[in-house]
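Lecture 7, part 2: worked example. A protein chain together with S-adenosyl-L-homocysteine.
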Amino acid sequence: MKIIAKKSLGQNFLIDKDIIYKISQITKIHRKNILEIGPGTGNLTEFILKENPKYLTVIEKDENLCQKLFLRFKDKIKIINNDVLKENLEIISSNEKFTVFGNLPYNISTEIVCKWVLNLKKTCWFDELVLMFQKEVADRIIAKENTSQFGRLTVLMNWRLNITKVFDIGPNSFSPKPKIESTVLHFIPKKNFHKFKNSKNIEIVTRTFFNQRRKMIKNPLKQLFNDPKDISNKLNIDLNLRPQNLSILQFYEIINEYEKLRS
Ligand code: SAH
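Predicted complex, written out as structure tokens:
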């Protein structure tokens, strides 16, 4: 049966076997509890199975594709037909941490990792994430300070995760071909991470700063604190810098100060 890709679900299926194999080799699958999100027609799923995971659960929103996946893999995988954004993965993962693979639509990859990071408990429900992003977004996630890519995503995602870029993938490896380049990122939870009272404050503070990324930081600081000078003296930061010139750690310190103010 021919599969017609649904644009609304961001369906660009990986067809390049070399690339799919390389993704399956990024981390250990053998005897592990694997979760694949947005498996599509199952091209990566097949390569994951070749590595003999202990369990393989997949979450796919498209009901048609779920039926096809069932015909293709039968009881070798557990299929959940749902929107991954609606699943509580902490519950599904039960006792064994998930290693997560996913080539999802690009906007969802970003949304889901932000949501996961903001809601993580002290211990994580996953031990690794291997996810595909639009290259331009991946570049923002792994951006260095003092670059124009450095921003909200950088500060947020690096809070709980160590992130490495694995490789870029060109449009020709997909069908239908997307218009953009893709990048695979590998995430591992940090053992030690900066403590906040409420992770929502990371969002509030980074939004306030990066919504006006060209302005000097005295502006967002004025919005967040009564007296920006106080904070800049205490944290030893120059009020004339732009948000991208601060370090991730300085952002965490600012968030801590913001939390002190609110409590
Ligand atoms: N991973 C496959 C398919 C990529 S296309 C491959 O590389 O070939 C993206 C897949 O994510 C599609 O199968 C699409 O139906 C699915 N998808 C889109 N939005 C989703 C969501 N919110 N939850 C779960 N799956 C979703």
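The longest strand covers residues 126-134. The chain has a mean pLDDT of 95. Keep this in mind for problem set question 3.
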